[in-house]
Amino acid sequence: MGCLKALLCDGGQIRLADVATPVPSPGDVLIRVTMAGICNTDLEVTAGYRPFTGILGHEFVGMVESDPLGELTGKRVVGSINVYCGECPYCRRGETSHCLERTAIGINGRDGAFAEFLALPRPNVHVVPAGLGDIEAVLVEPLAAGMRVVEQVHIQPGHSVAVLGDGKLGLLSARVLSATGSNVVVVGKHGHKLSLARSMGLRTAAVDDFTGPADVVLDCTGSVSGLETAVRLVRSGGTIVLKTTVAGKYKIDLSPIVVREIRIVGSRCGPFAPTLALLERHNLDLAGVVEAVYPLDRGVEAFEHARRKGALKILLSI
What we know:
The chain is 25% helix and 32% strand. 45% of the residues are buried. The chain has two domains: 3-139 and 286-317, Quinone Oxidoreductase, Chain A, domain 1 (Alpha-Beta Complex); 145-266, 3-Layer(aba) Sandwich (Rossmann fold), CATH 3.40.50. The strands form four sheets. Strands 3, 5, 6, 10, 11, 18 and 19 form a seven-stranded mixed sheet that branches. It has a six-stranded parallel sheet with strand order 14-13-12-15-16-17, with helices on both faces. With 318 residues, it is an alpha/beta fold. It has helices spanning 40-46, 89-92, 134-138, 140-152, 168-179, 191-199, 226-233, 255-259, 272-281, 299-306, and strands spanning 3-10, 13-20, 28-38, 54-55, 59-66, 76-79, 82-83, 103-105, 109-110, 117-121, 125-127, 160-164, 183-188, 203-206, 214-219, 234-242, 263-266, 290-295, 313-317.
């Protein structure tokens, strides 16, 4: 297939480049990417969150071009991002997202989805139900991050959950948690985003007006100040779920966390299968989260748009 177009990250700079078609390893499927999403993590990687050189992108939907077993060829799929060894102590315990040899597409040691083709191990590939559109499918990865909270924190009936941050991750996490029956309020500071949240059927509050205390607070702010705000809004003995990843450093007084016995849970990637099943059962009405769609050859421009203050989800059509 010769040379293909891709968005490369090199020294924090993004550029469109010609790359070779990936050669699948034994057990890999080759996927023709059709749509991909720019995540805040992609932006933070370019800002120095972690060193990475290669093709960015970990939110995608595409068509399987080839499958060593033949069963997935021609299927529309999404892919979980953590590639694991299957042999280390974490893998043997079923905690594959913490594999000692883990790579992550477009983030750590493996090329990502901002390209025409992507090779991914077969266990990472999930078939998209026919009733879901590409917009829903490309958002499965960030939606799964919301489902991860359900796995990590036992949210009892009647518990209050405050999602701090009205950006992309906050809105998507709140929508997933509300669909699982949680009592959710989106706490933010942007009127138009809170209005969008309400149009998605979510309760909202302005951060300056919300006093809590909430049983669970998700920090989806994308800011180092989010944790301090979360400490203020969570009840004593409650739980903060930290979703934010930023290149900046935290400076916070830890004594209230000790004195008030607040539990802090780091939370990253989530399960794709139950997320796809949830999307099949519920119409989550996610189109409003998407602000713009750019073709791949305008990918640098798409990144510039994604970096704008207050921007919602920016997608690449490939």
